[in-house]
Amino acid sequence: MNMEDDIWQRKHEEQVEEEELTQILIARKELEKMLLPSVLREVVDKAD
Predict the structure, then answer these.
(1) Which residue range(s) make up the domain with 36?
(2) How many domains would you assign to the chain?
């Protein structure tokens, strides 16, 4: 593999990794949105 191909492949791998991390962050935020109300209810219940 020549140097140009190697550079292209690395850039492509970095882009794929960045997209995967973005998807993980989005999924995490969605989970937090779903879980937050139940966590808040638990905190309020414990405070009573």
Answers:
(1) 21-48
(2) 1
Q: How do residues 1-43 score in pLDDT, each as one tens digit?
A: 699 999 999 999 999 999 999 999 999 999 999 988 887 788 8
CA gap 8, 12 in Å, rounded: 6
Q: How far is CA 32 from CA 4, 9, 10, 35, 39, in A?
A: 42, 35, 33, 5, 10
Which residues have CB under 8 Å from 32's CB, separation 6+? none
Query: pTM (2 decimals)?
Result: 0.64
